[in-house]
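Researcher: Batch entry, complex prediction.
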Amino acid sequence: MSESTIVKLPDQSTARIPKMNYLSKENGILSWLLTGDHKRIAILYLISLSFFFFIGGALAGLIRLELLTPQADLMATDTYNKVFTMHGVIMIFFFLVPSVPATLGNFLIPMMIGAKDLALPKINLLSWYLYMAGGLLALYTMATGGVDTGWTFTTPLSTHYVNTNVLTTGLAAFIAGFSSIFTGLNFIVTIHKMRAPGMTWFKLPLFVWAHYAASVLMVLATPVVAIAIVLVALERTIGIGVFDPTKGGDPILFQHLFWFYSHPAVYIMILPGMGVISEVISTFSRKRVFGYTAVAFSSVAIAIFGFFVWAHHMFIMGISNYAVLVFSLLTMLVAVPSAIKIFNWTFTLYKGSITFETPMIYAFGFMGLFTIGGLTGVFLGVSGTDIHLTETYFIVAHFHFVMVGGMLMAFLSGIHFWWPKMTGRMYPEKISQLAAVVTFIGFNFTFFPQFILGTLGMPRRYASYPPEFQILNVFSTAGATILGVGYLLPVLYLVWSLRYGKIAGNNPWQATGLEWQTQSPPLTENFVKMPIMDHDVYDYEWLEAQQEKEKEVASA
Amino acid sequence: MPDSSAVEHGASVAAEHEEHPAYLRHHFESTEQQADATNFAMWLFLLTEIMFFGGLFTAYLIYRNWYYQAFVAASHQLSIPLGGFNTLLLIVSSFTMAMGVWCAETRRKSGLVLCLCMTLVLGLGFLGVKSVEYREKFEKHHVPSYHYSLNSFLDPDSDEAAKAAGDKPLPLDVARHTEVYFSLYFAMTGMHALHMIIGVGILVFMIFRAQAGAYTTGHVTFVENFGLYWHFVDIIWIFLFPLLYLISRH
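Model: Structure tokens for the complex:
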């Protein structure tokens, strides 16, 4: 494997981490908490996101432990309800939605377009504070009794029937929503107004296109869930009747407003991950992404179609048959742009010089698992099969294939890919390849049995189940243990690499993006001179020519 | 560093630096870029606000369609003179705000402070009239789930406003849907009033800053962006007023 690798690390005796960089510029906790630097804010996000991920992961562990046996024996059934609700709330609002945009997007978008920072650095910092405020409020909720409505806050359950902390959890999601709005707004403004000379729209890396599409969704969809949460809060506190059937209100309206955000939200979660995969696949097959324009526009198409499919979450909720028909059709249309991406990545691999560094292994994991997750989504979009499969473990498996198998793989792929840029040091290659494979195996063990369980009819959100389902649940719980190891390993060796990792140099992957054409870790202002984009995006010949020129200069 | 093609920018930045005004933040190349970017961000923020109110307007649209009779009768309880007066206040305040932006652009400090103060007074006037209207709703028990009373709709003759509009008595199952109307009335005008209160707070802050001369040195983005926000809040009212007060009067 090491022969085929393209990493040509600089000579270890001479290599140094640059003295001046964004990490060394200022010291002290205040220089981090009051920073306007997009790279430092990205690091703040990375640390806090990882923290919430492990809390959400621990809750998932509790769920799997409970489901090891058919009886509800580990915890009381209402505790179980709280555990899976908090797992959903924390993972969705405090990990998946901000994951790639707030860390990698924050760090890389200004660098990729040749800017010194995001357009609104103070708003960027504010969005981190909002995120932390929301997150801590969610943790406070958990500590003071939790909430048991499911992460969907469905009315009238959330307004009339449960007496748990719906208000504080809703407030936490509301605050986190504003954090997400500000991030998206900042990205859109930056991509429009801060591009370096020569950086036209069709020279933007696909990572930036994907973030642009996701940002549009954040800006347009998030306010709608905000008003839905406000109305739930008003109904709980002062009893206005917008969702209350006894007063003439309609609980289905809540679902419309909620899913108008929460369906686009899954594209907010997955699009940035797709951006990561485009960069990684291109770099490790040494080829321009096949059908660049199609991949760029498929991101936009996903964002647009994503707004018109929300009611497929409500096929059994009492919406009209005609609505079911239309939304079923639109749901299947959204599979087309997703498939365009998968096919184009595959064609990028075709006749490429493929190497198997860790980011690439994660990217392959993404492609396989996302495809399965996407195709099983069609089962749920078809109204006939949906009636059988909805509210079963099939949905749980589908969602986790797309989000954990898709998004988390993409997140880890991106973290490994840009780790040398963020820290100036390489992660250890062998053990991280092992972690990627362990994650893939553990993931399939955990979630594939759940497809079968769902098809056999095991409902979601129950602490107990009929004994004949036990064998598959044992598989799933065992797989979750492997998966847990797969997620712990990167934490250990990435922290280790901060001190002991090999010096990475400017461009260990020989990638073409502007972010690689500057030192690692970068300067606070990213570039010494304002870069000019005088070549095409993913132009590996340009990169070679540049390096030839440098060698000539050096030898002359 | 393979970017040999990069312009000699470092040196030129250092040379130009003297000419840049102090308010130009380090990551922008020019004041035009900075103003452009912040303005654009404000428009995007207003777009999110449209989506936020859009949820409420959707709810209004659906329930008005379902409970037409109840919505007509309930809307007769609102006072057109008060609502109209408030509309007038807001339109004038938009004018004074626009004049304020113009004063900032032409660097007239006392004019700017005067315009902002007038906007503030008009905004407070709006909130004052709104609270009078809210108080009337409390007195007539038209606040949802707070001793809500159907009297005005079951027996219109006992109610001045209903009598003046010539309402017929509604059957009980129709009349009870007036509560949905008032739910939406309080949610929509309440959200609007919240935006007004936030705007008034920012106005107070701006008056002090303007007095200190912060906006009359050529850096007008903050005033401009606040102006956009203020006009936006007005426009929301321009939609709320006909939908809640006027549309059911024949």
